[in-house]
Design goal:
mainly alpha, two-stranded antiparallel sheet, 5 helices
Length: 119
């Protein structure tokens, strides 16, 4: 997966969100070891301290945990994973409604358009 960074927002939250989405998508499965900070930083083209901050955010959210011998591991807690997945889905839905509103559609019409798309 390619890293997509927006200069208009702080980098570390973007990195954290993209790592979380990789976890939710199964790129880093539950219980697996995350790549090292320096490896991820080099891949994303950012300072290791910035990546460290992003990974610390994942730990705060419960998506990862530090292990002295194994490095950082993805949580195996399915409840945490589903909670974060739901939060991300809600953000996507909200973005959809905001974009449709900018096009002049009501929330109701936006829902109708979605239903029509899937029929």
């Amino acid at each position: 997966m390619e890293w997509k960074l927006d200069d208009g927002r702080p980098i570390w939250p973007q990195l954290s969100q993209q790592l979380a989405r990789r976890i939710l998508a199964g790129v880093y499965p539950p219980g697996s070891r995350l790549p090292a900070v320096r490896e991820l930083a080099a891949e994303a083209g950012v300072n290791p301290n910035t990546m460290q901050r992003a990974l610390a955010q994942l730990e705060q959210e419960g998506l990862a945990k530090a292990d002295r011998t194994a490095g950082r591991l993805v949580t195996q807690d399915r409840q945490i994973l589903e909670s974060v997945r739901l939060r991300e889905a809600q953000a996507v839905i909200q973005g959809y409604f905001e974009a449709m509103s900018a096009l002049g559609y009501s929330r109701e019409r936006a829902v109708e358009l979605l239903k029509e798309e899937f029929q």
